[in-house]
Structure formats: C-alpha cells, structure tokens
TrEMBL record:
Domain of life: Bacteria
Limits of the Mce/MlaD domain: 33-108
Protein name: Paraquat-inducible protein B
Pfam families, per the entry: MlaD
Length: 394
C-alpha cells in the first residue's frame, strides 16, 4: 500500500515537472532562438514578454526594453523562436489589438513586398522600428482642425446656395430663350455635319501618296533651313556692319548737326549767288544758239568744222615731216661737229679725226683728193627713210 502511494506520488512529481518545463521558463531554455535589436522613437505599452508576430502568427517575444540616453531611442531586445528569421526590408512595428494588448508586428516594406530571395539579416543586427501613432496628438490636431472644418462647411453651404441661385437663373434664362437655344442647337448640328464632311474630304485628300509627298516636302524644308543658316549668319554679320557704319556716320554727321543752322545759311547764300550766274550762263547759251555771231557759227556751221578738221590733219602731217627735217638737221650738225674741216677747201686735202670719237658701227670714209663716199647715216626717226648726207661745198 505504501509502495503504491509512493509510486503515484513519484509519477505526479514527474508530470508536474514536465508541465512546469513545458509552460515555464525552461521551454525557452530548451528551444533554439535568434536575437535582434529594434529601435523606436516611442514605445507606448512595450514591455518584456510582449509577443512578436508575423502575419498574426507568434514567432517570438520581447526579452528586454530599455531607453538609450545616448541616441534618445527605445531599444527593444527581440528573440525569434525556431527557424524564424528576418530578411532585408522587414520592419518591427508596435501595434495594438482591439482589446488594447500591445504586440510587435514584423511587417515588410511595400517596396520589398513580393521580392524573391531577399538577403537574410544576421542575428544580432539592429533594425529601425516603426512607432505607433500618437493618438493624443492626433486627437489634438483633429480638434484644431474642427473650427477650420466648420468654416469650410459654412463656405461650402454658401457656395451651394450661390450655385442654387445660378441654377434658378439659368433655368429662367433657358425658359425665356428656349426657341433661340433650339435654333443654336440645330445650327450646331448642321455645323458638326459640315465639319464631318470637311474632315472626310481632308482624309480623302490626304491619301498615303499625298502624306508621303508632304513628308518629303517637310524634310526638304528642314534641309533648306539648314542651308539657310550660313546665309542668316552672313546677314547678321552684314547687319552688324551696317550698324557699325550707322554709328560711324552718326559720328561724322554729329559735327554738322551742331553747325546745321550756319551751313543752311551758307547754302542759301550760295544758291542766291548761283542763281544770277545760272541766269547769265543761260543767256549766253541762248545767244550762242539763236544769235548770228562767231560763236553761233562755230556752234552750227558744218563747213567750219570740216575746215578745222582738215587743218588738224595737215598739222599732224606737217609735224611728222618737221620731225624728219629736225632729225636730218641733227645728223648734219653731228657730222660737222665731227669733221669741222670739211666746211672749207682745206678740208678736202687735210683729213682730221674730228673733235668727237667715231661712233660705234659707223662706216669709215675712203680718203682721196677728188673722190669721196657719201656715207649713209642711219635715220634718227623710225618713221623717216634713211637719209643720204649731201655733199659739202668746197
């Protein structure tokens, strides 16, 4: 009997120990887990033993919550049970249930949702968490917005009344001008029909061939505009030169501008003096044209003109002959200068060399008492025939 009681007591003790291990702290010791750190700007209701969930499923719990005065942040130590891990893009978020229980929800950022094979965040890493909204501050802001909302509603009501008045006036206007409005509608329908026909005509005109020609024309215009660019640049340079020329002319004209009055007076005086002179010249011209004097005969007589023309021709011919005569005189003077003894009888018997040197290329004379050659002296005038020197008197 005592043995049975002891055996039951021993079995009950083992069962109690198993229950304690399963539901107590020893379960955490026996399971594998991963530790992460989450930072929050504010963490209302967050404390140890708060569950950590993903999509509503418990995957761990908060082990420790402390405030970092160095960074002014709340640091929560999170442990994940079993094979649960965090990947890049996961954010710890403090949330509340409908009954007011606080928990940490592991949510994925929208830009990382649906991304396959996201990198695993190693255990011991620190993640930036999302704090819950401050309901008190939100309520205060909403309270501050209530007067503005009331004012806006009042304005909307006033605007609605104004639009109601506009609608009443519009209905009254439409009722009074129903016939005109109907006519405008009919005219609009006719205009739309004409526009449709016009668009159909344009579509018929703009067939594929016409469109291709239009495309080619536009391309040619674009190419021509490129070719016109140098011309436009040249025109711009020309305009710049014209502008510079205008500036130079302005500089030149500026002194005359200051003396314009005196210049105008001088021009008036000059014109006044020129007018009698022109009158006298006109009178002289009329006298020559209409009179019977020598000037009129010189102006009108063809015979006098012919005589003057003939005299000028004779003068030209005589000048040519005179030139030849002067050339012969030059030859004769040169010959006497070379042999001055030939002027007398003594020159026949006595031959001298002359006062000048014999010119190069001259034909030497044959000496004799009674026989002398008549050397041919080259003419100095190219237009005259060679001149034969006349014999000198003895």
């Amino acid at each position: 009997m005592q043995f049975a009681i002891g055996l039951v007591t021993l079995i009950a003790g083992f069962a109690l120990a198993a229950i304690i291990i399963w539901f107590g702290e020893f379960q955490y010791v026996l399971q594998s887990h991963k530790t992460y750190y989450a930072t929050f700007r504010s963490a209302p209701g967050l404390q140890p033993k708060v569950p950590v969930r993903r999509a509503g499923i418990r995957i761990g719990e908060v082990q420790k919550v402390e405030y970092s005065s160095e960074y002014s942040l709340v640091v929560a130590t999170i442990t994940l049970d079993g094979d649960n891990i965090l990947r890049e893009g996961d954010e710890p978020t403090i949330d509340r249930s409908l009954l007011g229980d606080t928990y940490v929800d592991i949510d994925t950022r929208p830009d990382m949702q649906g991304v396959k094979d996201r990198p695993i965040v190693p255990a011991g890493s620190t993640l930036e968490g999302v704090s819950p909204p401050n309901l008190t501050k939100t309520i205060d802001e909403a309270s501050d917005m209530v007067p503005n909302a009331n004012k806006t509603l009042t304005q909307i009501e006033t605007t609605a009344k104004a639009w109601a008045q506009v609608g009443d006036r519009t209905n009254s206007l439409i009722a009074r001008n129903q016939e005109q409005i109907d006519q405008i509608v009919r005219d609009a329908q006719i205009t739309l029909e004409k526009m449709n026909r016009t668009l159909d005509s344009i579509d018929e005109v703009l067939n594929p061939e016409t469109r291709e020609n239009l495309r080619i024309t536009i391309r040619n215009v674009r190419d021509a505009s490129k070719d016109l660019r140098p011309t436009i640049e040249s025109a711009n340079r020309t305009l710049d030169n014209i502008d510079q020329l205008a500036q130079d002319l302005k500089t030149v004209v500026e002194p005359f501008k200051t003396r314009s009055e005196s210049i105008a007076n001088n021009v008036d005086v000059s014109l006044a003096n020129l007018n009698p002179t022109l009158i006298d010249v006109r009178a002289v011209v009329n006298e020559i044209r209409n009179g019977n004097g020598s000037l009129q005969r010189l102006y009108r007589s063809d015979e006098l003109y012919m005589n003057l023309d003939a005299a000028s021709v004779l003068l030209v011919q005589n000048l040519a002959k005179l030139r030849c005569i002067l050339d012969d005189a030059q030859v004769f003077a040169d010959k006497i200068a070379r042999h001055p003894g030939e002027l007398g009888v003594q020159g026949v018997f006595t031959r001298d060399k002359g006062l000048k040197e014999v010119p190069p290329g001259a034909v030497p004379r044959k000496h004799g008492f009674f026989k002398r050659d008549r050397g041919v002296v080259p003419a100095a005038c190219p237009d005259c025939p060679p001149t034969t020197a006349p014999p000198l008197s003895q």
